[in-house]
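User: I'm curious whether this sequence folds into something compact or stays loose and floppy. Could you predict its structure so I can see for myself?
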Amino acid sequence: MEKRVMTDSKRRRALTAASALLGGVLVLSACSDDGGAAPGAGAESSKTSQAQVDEAAAKDASEAQITIAPKNGATDASINNAAAVSVTKGKLTEVTMTTSGGDAVEGTLAADGSSWKPNGQLERSTTYKISATAADSEGRQAHANSSFTTVSPENSFIGNFTPEDGSTVGVGMPVSINFNKPITNKKAVQDGITVTSSSGQEVVGHWFNNQRLDLRPEDYWQGGSTVSLKLALDGVEGADGVVGVQQKTVTFKVGRNQVSTVDAKAHTMTVTQDGKTIKTIPISAGSPDNPTYNGQMVISEKYKETRMDGATVGFTDDDGKGEYDIKDVPHAMRLSTSGTFIHGNYWGKGIFGTANTSHGCVGLEDKQGADDPNTPGAWFYDNSMIGDVVIVKNSPDRTITPDNGLNGWNMSWSEWVAGSAV
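Assistant: Here's the prediction. I'll summarize afterward.
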């Protein structure tokens, strides 16, 4: 076998190549030691620079912290108390609130700049946008924005109440609330309703059905007292998925104590004020075929003149027409939902104080046109107010049901209290 031996020239070329390779490595190492960027050092430097920028920005940021309610994107928001803007570590400098259609909502900024709220009740099923600006003690500004939608009519309920705010009523006037949706959580709703009187009388509510709640004391209101109704129903769940939206206080006054007693058998009405008889008036009550209800009835409406059509209350002839249709009944005052009135009568002759001839109403002598103040019908109308009590006795008919009009006084106190949900 032949043995090959490396020549000197080949050995020198190999050593030269090795030296070059080692020299390259040393050169690369020298670059790294020389202060140049080693692998990954550029990214680290970029992070450091961004942190410095963020820190500088943070030092320049406003300390003011704005809070807007409801939260952005909220639905079914209250129309009363939901919308509000507040700030800490600063003062609000500008707040705008608009509907999604661009209509501005007026509001009030607190004197110290700490809060803002709209001036009035919002609309249901409406989307609102709020934009707020605040400044801290160094004048640096902060901004916040929010959008929310108020509760819809389908998901809310209201109570239509009587008597009206600021009115003066008779001693028999209950607070009557009719809800526009059935209430299943009666206790929760009744807990949100408070009625108080300056007389100190205890007031209790009674549910006639799932949409009507009346409240009254055990006896008639004291004459001259002041009664307040407070509705705190905002956000109260009246039924599954249905909440209240009302938040208000209503105040009314009670006038003199007037109670008028109709004796259907004697054909008279005795009017008392504060327990003293001030007038006795001949009347004509319901005929034997259509007698007047007995019981305590409260005047709920007054009309100087009105039309009375028998067809609207079930009195029709064989042709389906009303047994009567009087287009100008004078001085009419409603006593029941079913159509019982006490009113003037100009068409009856010689019946007052002697005969009962009506279809269930109580009639007083009067003049057509309701323009003679000296007639018994005009006198009683002028001296009566909504909430006055008219008691009918000695009629062959039954006692009126308590829910037929504002006539809960025909229920015993124990029965009344039993109908309360609280």
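Summary: Residues 155-255 form a domain with the Immunoglobulin-like fold (CATH 2.60.40.3710). Residues 1-38 have pLDDT under 50 and may be disordered.
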